[in-house]
Design a protein that fits this description.
By secondary structure, this protein is α+β, with helices and mostly antiparallel strands. It has two domains: 57 residues, Single Sheet (N-terminal domain of TfIIb), CATH 2.20.25; 143 residues, Sandwich (Jelly Rolls), CATH 2.60.120. 26% of the residues lie in helices and 37% in strands. The chain has four helices and twelve strands; from the N terminus they run E-E-E-E-E-E-E-E-E-H-H-E-E-E-H-H. The strands form three sheets. Strands 8-7-10-5-12 form a five-stranded antiparallel beta sheet, with no helix packed on it. A four-stranded antiparallel beta sheet has the order 1-2-3-4, with no helix packed on it. Strands 9-6-11 form a three-stranded antiparallel beta sheet. Strand 7 and strand 8 form a beta hairpin. Helix 1 packs antiparallel against helix 2. The protein starts with a strand and ends with a helix. The structure holds zinc ion (ZN).
């Protein structure tokens, strides 16, 4: 991926109010997809951090689904903006945008690694035998998916249309437009929180 830093600006921090928020903008060209903007915000005073991804092409609120069946599917690219919800129904996993949710570009394998890390931490913290068993089941399924013995579906939904799954075989990924009803049910994380923050002031 070719990265190109466009500009760095300083603005007002939404958390501490100081003029110490560094805003960095970078463009990245993703094969089979196009150009995306990576935005990183970091406050030098209070440590507030936020990152996001903005697609420069037309943004359509959408759902991308990929059935992960072969090792080739593990290398499909996943663009996840801060407003995306990721679901893996077969594992009972749903990752919703939160106040500190970050944007990233990875592949399916990278998503599985992230899920694995979270499940391993959850397993260590719980004393509930049933929950531990559930964690073990998820971890073993992830290993089976990686070796091509098990199949899962990765779904990414973004009401702002800044997220996507990109496969070198285009027809492997199903893209659907989200309905107004579906958009209403999805969380948007930071953007939503900032909006509420602004409204109460
Ligand atoms: Zn600050």
């Amino acid at each position: 991926m070719k990265k190109n830093t466009l500009k760095v600006t300083v603005s007002k921090c939404p958390i501490c109010g100081n003029e110490t928020l560094m805003e960095k903008m970078t463009t990245v060209v993703i094969p089979h997809f196009g150009e995306v903007l990576l935005l990183t915000l970091q406050c030098e005073k209070c440590g507030f951090k936020h990152s996001d991804i903005i697609c420069t092409a037309e943004r359509i609120p959408s759902r991308y689904s990929l059935k992960v069946e072969t090792s080739q599917d593990l290398y499909a690219k996943v663009i996840r903006s801060s407003t995306a919800t990721i679901r893996i129904p077969e594992l009972g996993i749903k990752v919703e945008p939160g106040p500190s949710s970050t944007a990233f570009i990875t592949n399916v394998e990278g998503i599985l690694e992230r899920v694995k890390d979270v499940v391993e931490i959850a397993k260590r913290w719980t004393k509930n035998k049933k929950k531990q068993k559930r964690c073990d089941k998820i971890l073993s399924t992830i290993e089976e998916v990686k070796s091509g013995k098990e199949k899962i579906t990765i779904i990414i939904e973004d009401p702002l249309g800044n997220s996507a799954i990109i496969h070198s075989k285009k027809d492997k990924v199903i893209m659907e437009k989200l309905s107004q009803e579906e958009i209403k049910k999805l969380k948007t994380g930071f953007i939503n929180n900032t909006f509420r923050f602004a409204k109460t002031q």
